[in-house]
Amino acid sequence: MAIYQYRCAECGPFDVSRPIGTAGSSETCASCGAEASRVFTPPRVGRASGSLGRALEAQEASAHEPRVVRRVPEGPRRPAAPADPRHRRLPRP
Q1: Average pLDDT taken over every residue of the chain
Q2: Rg for the chain (alpha carbons), in Å?
Q3: In angstroms, rounded to a whole number, what is the distance separating the alpha carbons of residues 89 and 47?
Q4: Angstrom distance (rounded) from CA 59 to CA 64
Q5: CB-based burial of residue 69 (10 Å sphere; 0-12 exposed, 13-18 middle, 19+ buried)?
């Protein structure tokens, strides 16, 4: 079910719940019985939380405010040498 908004000239805006895709261009106002025209509004989407929300915010911000890189990022680090001296004699890839 979706919530569609209509605006009556005399009573103002009101919401109607209908299955998706079945809303008409006009609806009868429940208060006064006059024809009310449909108002197109943005969808009411829930806000993502956690890491998805942070990723979406970063993506949105980068479109208008890209991060400035001040130095070249470091490359991948080499793994630390093993503490056991016997590991040095093992074959390397």
Answers
A1: 84
A2: 30
A3: 55
A4: 9
A5: exposed
- What is the C-alpha separation between 41 and 7, in angstroms, rounded? 12
The strands making up 2-8's β-sheet, listed across from edge to edge, are: 12-18, 2-8, 35-39, 26-28
Classified as helix, coil or strand, 36 is strand
- Strand ranges, E, within the chain: 2-8, 12-18, 26-28, 35-39
Listed residue (45, 42, 7, 3) closest to 22, CA to CA: 3
pLDDT digits (tens, 9 = 90+) for 26-59: 899 988 989 999 998 877 666 667 888 888 888 8
Q: What is the largest CA-CA distance in the chain?
A: 90
